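It would be a great kindness if you could assist me with a short task in structural biology. The matter concerns a single protein, recorded as an amino acid sequence and a row of backbone structure tokens. The record follows directly beneath this note:
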Amino acid sequence: MSVRLTPVTTTEGVAPFTFSEHALAECRAIMARYPEGRTKSALIPILHIAQAGNDGWLSVPAMDAVAVLLGIQPIEVYEVASFYSMFNLRPVGRHVLEICRTTPCMLRGGDALIAHAEKKLGIHVGETTRDGLFTLKAVECLGSCGTAPMLQCGATYHEDLTPEAFDALIERLQGAYTRSNYTDR
């Protein structure tokens, strides 16, 4: 079973988005890595920066700001953001727990780990805990088959997971006040 989080596709009631000066400088440094006219190649790292600067998700205004910055059509941004599981198209918890459910992880207990996570957190895949700390996602291959089952939280992989290791991770993250993300921030 795969649960896809329904994206927020409206701008009504959604806060406007602007890059901070620091984030804009980061984006421009990334864009400078590519030849003139090829800045679209910077789309994925810039989406990560936009997501980190927008409480962990990509609203329509945030994606539109990325399109303006890169000089591309908004649909080009929406296509990429909606394809990759690491981009959240609706508000999420402070820590997004992505548990791999592809065959190697499944064979080594990935499904049991997902069931344990749902019970431990009191939510189902695709939901966020009431305290806003955790969002649980089941995702396709995270590329760590040799150390299955595994979970990704921001840019960090947690491998060879057991229910006990998962519980210890949750305990550590409950005390972490920084939002997990895919950038170095």
Summary: Residues 110-121 form the longest helix (12 residues). The mean pLDDT is 92. The helical segments are 21-31, 43-52, 60-70, 74-83, 103-107, 110-121, 163-174.
